[in-house]
Every structure is written in structure tokens, then in C-alpha cells.
Amino acid sequence: MATSKRVSVLKETRAGEKRVIILPDQVTEFRNAGFDVLVEEGAGAETGASDLTYKEAGANIVTTEQAWRESDFVLKYKAPGPDEYKYLRKGLRLGAFFHAEGNPELTSRLLETETQAYAYEFFKTPEGIFPLAVPDSEISGKLAVLFAAYHLQSHMGGSGVLLADVSYVKPPRVLVIGYGNAGAAAARTAHALGAEVVVLGTNRERLRRFAASVPGVTCRLNTPDALEREVEQADLVVGAILISTYDTPPMIDENLVRRMRPGSMIVDVTVGYGSGYLPTFHSQTTHTDPVYERFGVLHCKIDAMPGSVPHTAARAVSPLITPYLIELGNSLYEGVPAPTAASGMITDGGRITHHEIERHMVHADAAAPAGAH
């Protein structure tokens, strides 16, 4: 790698993606840590961060080619798309929210090019915490409820239920499956609007502790009977369990969806891969086409849901992630240990270096049609 410490910040190219991983204030932090910072022109425009503000923070504004080619340490928000695969190369250290376990083609390209890739979602502290996924997960949980509140209106194809408390009207019912960062945010948002909220979970002790933090929200063990009863009564179901959905049996199957209230809605917040626990989702949705109907029930499964609020999302993530990325950069250029970032390495030198990616690649290979490889 180059002797001087240099980092590139890229503009996102995926459809609907307007976030940027590093804002001008955090450019200053990189500069104070001894880095030259290259920022692709227009990288922060959709978040309210102009090229001028980046320049005032000490960044050099560069072209796309320069951002990719003139630094071996390159940072994105989301994983590169197919049009960016041409920039992958040996010697490149690339950071992003990859979620490569759901993208075998991307993983294959990283391996073929011997790119050293770091997935922010796998950065793990010595205490066993995954800190960098928290802001986007919380935003996703809140947006799940707000998206549903809009789409439950009758002119959007919904049941016509207002997802809020109104005097003398029976409150709407919201079921949240899971109580991690996304599920907790969804439950609190729905409760704040005035809905009757039920949260289902499988760990009795953790569920008890969560219940103590959300007065007014009902928490129950996720038994088959409880699940069936709550799904049938819900105006909105939020799926928020972070599991592998390649090898997870169905939880809410077609028969149960058919018994839901007409015009009710399911939002899959964690957007798992494969059929998984919500098999009636036959495809993901997008910000421009967020909902489709199956069996009289609206389905919403938007990857990168926080991308619709880039101003907020970037300001939640950039200050949190920057210290870890500076540590990563110091480890690459100076050999300083960065254990939290090191736990996020997913490929290196043509090898998979993270067990979760390897496990999912096995499922993907097993599901591929004969001759696909």
C-alpha cells in the first residue's frame, strides 16, 4: 500500500440509495488522525453535505475513477453494485454494509479479484456487541410502522385502519416478532402512536427484561397458539428477527396469511434471504414500488429501508462508525491492532474469512440450478 495514509469516500450508485458513509465533520476526524481524504464529487449531496463543506473540512474532491483508483482504502455505505465490480482488485481494502451472505455473485467477485472486504455489520467489539448495525436497525423499525401507517389507508390498498389512537375507536393492533434493535424501535413507535402492541419472542428471560423497558406493550412467548391468535387479529405484523432465512422453517405460512384481516399488512424489517420464516414474500420491494398484495394482505420488504431518510441515517451512522474506520485504517497502514474491525473481514486474498458468509455460500450453492457454476 502507499506510504501515506489515504482513504476514499464514495458516492452511492444503487437505485434509491442516497446515504454517504462519512460526513464532513468526520472528515476532520480522519484528517486529525493523519489521513488524506478523497471524497467522490457529489457523495454527500443528498444528505445536505455539499462538496464545498467537504473541502472546508480538508477533503480533496475527486472523480469516481480517482476515488476508486488512487486509494487502497475505500469506504462505501452499501456494497458495490455490478457496475462497480470493475473497480475490485487485489490490494484494495473495501468497507461497506455488504450483507454478502445474501449475494453470492458479489461474494464470488470479491473472491475472484482478491479484494480484502470488511462488512460493517460484522464489526464486533470484545464484549460481543455489533455496534454499527444499531442506527440503521432502529431507523428501519421506526420506518416499518410509518410505512405501514401510510399504506394501510384505503386508497393505498389497505384496510382503512388509522395506525393511531382516536377517541372512542378501538385502537389498531400491531404484532412485532422479535425485540432486538429493529423490533424494539417498531414496538415503541407503534405504541407511541396509540396502537395496541404485542411483541413475541422465544427467550423467556430476555423477553421479560425487554417487557420491563416498554410499559404498555404486551410481551408473550412465541408459541404456535400465541402466534396464530395474534397474527389473525393484527392490522400490522412486523417481522424483526435476525436469523438465517435459508434454513429457517416457515413461521407465518400461506394458510395463516390467508386468515389475516383483509387489507392488513406484513413488513419484513430484517429482509432475510431465502423463503425463511415469512415465505409468502416471493420478492423484495423497493422505495419506488414498496408494497404488493398476496392473499388480500399487503407485503413490504425493502432492503436498506433507511435509505429513504439519508439525511437522518447518515448523521446517525457517520459519527458512530468513524472511530472504528480510523482504527481499521491505522491497522492497514501502520499495523496497529483493530480487533473490532478485524472481526468484520469477510474476504481476503481470494478466501472467505467469515463463517457466516461461508455458511450462506453453502446454501446458495445447494440451491443453484445444475450447471450454474
Q: What would you say this structure looks like, in words?
A:
This protein is α/β, with parallel strands linked by helices and 373 residues long. It folds into 2 domains: 6-131 and 310-367, 3-Layer(aba) Sandwich (Rossmann fold); 134-307, NAD(P)-binding Rossmann-like Domain (Rossmann fold), CATH 3.40.50.720. The chain has helices spanning 24-32, 51-56, 64-69, 104-112, 134-151, 181-193, 204-213, 224-233, 254-258, 310-334, 339-342, 355-367, and strands at residues 6-9, 36-40, 60-62, 73-78, 93-97, 116-119, 173-177, 196-201, 218-221, 236-239, 265-268, 292-294, 297-300, 345-348, 351-352. The longest helix is centred in the last third of the chain and has 25 residues, at 310-334. It starts with 5 loop residues before the first strand and ends in a 6-residue tail after the last helix. Residues 366-373 have low confidence and may be disordered.
Distance between the termini: 33 Å
Strand order of the largest sheet: 3-2-1-4-5-6-14-15
CATH class membership of the largest domain? Alpha Beta
CATH topology of the largest domain, anyone? Rossmann fold
Whole-angstrom Rg: 22 Å
* Class of secondary structure makeup: alpha/beta
Order of helices and strands: EHEHEHEEHEHEHEHEHEHEEEHHEEH
Number of strands: 15
Mean pLDDT: 93
Largest sheet: 8 strands, mixed
DSSP summary: helix tally: 12
